[in-house]
Inverse folding.
């Protein structure tokens, strides 16, 4: 059930909108904040007390004014509408299509706050993904079912390394194209515009975008999106793996930007 509140906005501080509490809502419920310009902005409830509720607006609050602001409550946590059609598409940090194409024809909607998997239920790692990077494949193999952190520093080409892996990664027995059951979820977190364009154009030019769901959270985007971009990306990866039965390689760069936002 969706509820709408008008005339309750009391204060706006950066991405935080404070509303007088006139109804009962749940913590982390998704909302749409609609200003006088009529543009809906995605948000969520992040704090509640007896008098006020705090809405974290996940998009730019530029032009948002208190008079005339309408908040529509979805009555459920943030979720991502998914289908096999997410492959070959480009999304922003909160799962909205930004490639100019049509909306995703949704088959299933999954909450982005996924449940942890019991480690005992996981199959043991027995194979690896060929990355095309000799130093990794021979000395620090990317094992299926495991994580491979890459530590870097300022000025070092970690973005280029991540893109090389995305362009050339394939299953060992998947043939030249990596196999039809192989997919990539690539998330750029807090990246500059030129890096985002490099990711997009590199995947398009190599043909790897056809098997990739690309998430781009720009440095100029709302900082609140940094915390959610990995969750949207990993929700997509879990859907492709557990519902569509694909082998999925998830690449997240740069986790430092995510960690910095968590520390605030």
């Amino acid at each position: 059930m969706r509820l709408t509140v008008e005339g309750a906005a009391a204060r706006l501080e950066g991405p935080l909108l404070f509303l007088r509490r006139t109804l009962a809502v749940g913590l982390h419920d998704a909302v749409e904040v609609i200003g006088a310009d009529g543009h809906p902005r995605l948000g969520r409830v992040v704090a509640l007390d007896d008098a006020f509720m705090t809405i974290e607006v996940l998009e730019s609050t530029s032009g948002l004014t208190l008079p005339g602001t309408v908040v529509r409550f979805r009555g459920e946590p943030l979720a991502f509408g998914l289908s096999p059609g997410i492959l070959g598409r480009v999304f922003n940090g909160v799962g909205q299509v930004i490639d100019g194409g049509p909306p995703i024809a949704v088959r299933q909607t999954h909450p982005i706050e996924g449940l942890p998997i019991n480690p005992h239920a996981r199959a043991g790692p027995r194979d690896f993904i060929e990355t095309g990077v000799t130093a990794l494949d021979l000395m620090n193999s990317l094992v299926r079912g495991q994580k491979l952190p890459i530590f870097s520093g300022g000025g070092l080409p970690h973005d280029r390394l991540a893109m090389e892996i995305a362009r050339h990664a394939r299953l060992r027995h998947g043939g030249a194209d990596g196999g039809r059951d192989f997919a990539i979820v690539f998330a750029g977190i807090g990246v500059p515009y030129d890096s985002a364009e490099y990711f997009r154009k590199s995947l398009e030019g190599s043909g790897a975008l056809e098997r990739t769901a690309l998430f781009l959270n720009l440095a100029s985007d709302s900082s609140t999106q940094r915390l959610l971009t990995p969750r949207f990306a990993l929700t997509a990866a879990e859907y492709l793996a557990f519902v569509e039965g694909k082998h999925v390689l998830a690449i997240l760069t740069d986790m430092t930007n995510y960690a910095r936002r968590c520390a605030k």
User: Anything to note?
Assistant: Residues 193-206 form the longest helix (14 residues). The mean pLDDT is 88. The chain has two domains: 3-77, 80-263. The domain at 3-77 is CATH 2.40.10.170 (Thrombin, subunit H).
